[in-house]
Design brief:
The protein contains nine helices and 14 strands. The protein is α+β, with helices and mostly antiparallel strands. β2 and β3 form a beta hairpin.
Length: 366
């Protein structure tokens, strides 16, 4: 019989030594992190998730015990998220010691966790599995877990790009953006210090950290209420096709070289006017004041006008958000309208200022 016993601090210390290294290797295999940064990112991720160790609220770490053998066979870790209308759990890790594998312990542990989740009032369980982990995927399929979204990528060899998608030289002398063969989804937009790529599941901790900062989310329509909320947000983006009418596409703003996530920038493609686009951006506080936001927006605008041939790009901003207004002016956008108390925002009416730039104005920039 399987029993789930809550971790002690000593068990947590032993567990973290293994899990930090394993999580780093999984992200290297998936292509999310480089070898040089993986261990530090993994340590930082675990520290943010468990700031109070086993006493961290809503984090449930269990030792999986075989009561008949009288010894542990593995571990399982779940986060209980009560910040949504339907409370749910997110399974961070399931680990079975090698000598106990293929004996039914993983299935038994998952079923035991379902019982714990119900006792905690949770209505569903979620998890993320790396594509290369075929054994885990098979287990979750058998247990009834369904695919909510799919994150796909294709490595591109040097010189194998689509010759019909070459990007003209622009005023910033940036390298051309990498695209897939049908030109519908951008893989990356490089600038001098940054690279813009789609948000990935491995970005959840960093995204949650800066997006939940009260000063950062002051003028944002969305702020994650928990790490699981950030994970669900990223998961919802994985099936979005770039330049698809009626969608928001979210890029991660990353430092070139390390690919560290320092912010995100979104593009909205209106459903009724495919020749226009709306943008919005967020930068982590620790990376503000360095011109990175301006550089990211310039890179995105250049792609929208030069590669996608958009006619007009606009942004909506609260008039009290002076730093964003200054950035929009720096990239050449001009104020087109100021609507008084036109938006109901966070329990009150708010003004809305619209900035925009035309393709002809972008081309005329020196």
């Amino acid at each position: 019989m399987i029993i789930l016993n809550p971790f002690t601090e000593k068990e947590l210390e032993s567990y973290l030594q293994r899990d930090i290294a394993q999580y780093a290797q999984e992200n290297i295999k998936a292509g999310y992190w480089t070898e040089s940064e993986a261990m530090e990112k993994s340590r930082s991720s675990h520290a943010r998730l468990l700031p109070q160790g086993v006493a961290t609220p809503n984090q449930h770490l269990f030792s999986i015990w075989d009561s008949e053998r009288g010894e542990p066979v593995g571990n399982i870790w779940m986060f209980a998220d009560y910040d949504s209308a339907n409370p749910s759990g997110f399974i961070y890790d399931l680990f079975i010691e090698e000598r106990f594998r293929k004996k039914g312990y993983a299935t038994a542990a998952m079923l035991a966790l379902e019982g714990k989740a119900k006792e905690l009032g949770l209505t569903a369980l979620y998890l993320h599995v790396f594509a290369h982990n075929l054994a885990a995927r098979s287990l979750y399929d058998k247990l009834g877990y369904g695919v909510k979204s799919t994150n796909m990528a294709k490595p591109l060899a040097a010189g194998s790009g689509n010759k019909h998608c070459s990007q003209p030289e622009d005023s910033f002398n940036e390298p051309p953006s990498s695209m897939d063969n049908d030109s519908s989804r951008i893989l990356q937009i490089p600038t001098e210090r940054l690279i813009l790529t789609p948000l990935e599941p491995g970005d959840a901790v960093e995204l949650y950290t800066y997006r939940s900062d009260p000063e950062v989310c002051r003028y944002q329509s969305w702020a994650p209420t928990s790490l699981a909320d950030a994970q669900r947000f990223i998961g919802s983006l994985q099936s979005v096709v770039f330049d698809s009418p009626g969608t928001w596409f979210q890029f991660g703003i990353r430092l070139r070289g390390t690919h560290a996530l320092v912010g995100d920038i979104g593009v909205h493609f209106p459903p009724d006017e495919p020749r226009q686009a709306e943008i919005g951006f967020t930068l982590a506080p620790s990376h503000q004041g360095q011109g990175l936001g301006t550089e990211a927006v310039n890179g995105l605008l250049n792609h929208l006008f030069v590669s996608l041939r958009k006619h007009r790009v606009f942004a909506s901003v609260d008039p009290k958000n002076l730093s964003s207004i200054r950035l929009l002016k720096r990239v050449g956008m001009r104020q087109e309208a100021h609507f008084r108390e036109s938006l109901w925002f966070k329990d009150g009416w708010s003004d809305d200022v619209v900035f925009a730039i035309l393709d002809s104005e972008w081309s005329a920039r020196e």
